[in-house]
Structure formats: structure tokens, C-alpha cells
Amino acid sequence: MMQHHWDDDERLLADLSEAVGETAPLADVIADYGSGAYAWRTVERDLLRASLSFDSSLERVTERRGGPDDPRVLTFTAAPLSVELEVMPDQVVGQILPPGAGEILVETADGVTFHVQADDVGFFILPNVPHGSVRLRCDTAVARLVTDWIRL
Hints:
Layout: H1 9-22, H2 27-39, H3 43-46, E1 48-55, E2 72-78, E3 81-87, E4 92-97, E5 102-108, E6 113-118, E7 123-126, E8 133-140, E9 144-147, E10 150-151
Parallel strand pairs: 1-9
Antiparallel strand pairs: 1-2, 2-3, 3-4, 4-7, 5-6, 5-8, 8-9, 8-10
């Protein structure tokens, strides 16, 4: 059993020096991980917050042109970007505006996430309709945004 005499400052410093010396080859890797983690501190601040600016399900019935089975249309806006969604029983399609390619991260309230790609005109399809509350994080050449949580 190794016995430490850490009540003596000199011995404590010697033990610490020995311990750090053993990890010296990993120092650059550890520094890189630390720098990467530090860079994430502002990721939420750098995202535009896109508010729900239109929801077709909230229109007064007399103003609707179609029937109750028509797709639900949602628009989230955060200048200079917006995201439009069309929610149908079997799928959700969307478009980033202004049109352009991007990556969409879909987050559900229960912690499930998945990625989809928006094509060159900003069009994307969610592979299945998430149930419950969701929000989208859109990363494009123009900007990055996160939508309000919405119940589909």
C-alpha cells in the first residue's frame, strides 16, 4: 500500500508533479477538448429565436378556405430566416426561407433527436410525424435558428 505524506507541502507538490508528468503526453488532447467545450458556451446565444408567426389551426373557421382535414401550416420567423411547416397526418414537410440548403435538427420534448437535410431550395421532409412537442434547429449559410416548441 502506497502511503502519502500530504501533510508536508513539499511532498504534496512532488506527488502532484509526478502525477501530472504521467499525463503529459495527453496534455495537448486535453487542451483541445477544453477549448472545444469552451467554444460551446455561446452556442445558445448564437441561435436566432424563431417565434411562431402563423398557425393555420388558430384561424377562425369562417376565414378558412379548406376543410378540417387540410394540412396544418406553421410559420416560424426570425429575421433573416423563417421556416414553414406543413403538417399532414402521415408526414411533415417544410421549407427554409430564403431558400437554401441546410441541416435541420428535430428535438422532441422527451429528448429524442434526429437530423434531416434541406435541399438547395430549402425543402425538407421529416421521416415520421413526431408526436407531442417538438422544436427545430436550422443551420444554414445565412443564419442559425431554433423554433419555439410546438405541439404537432
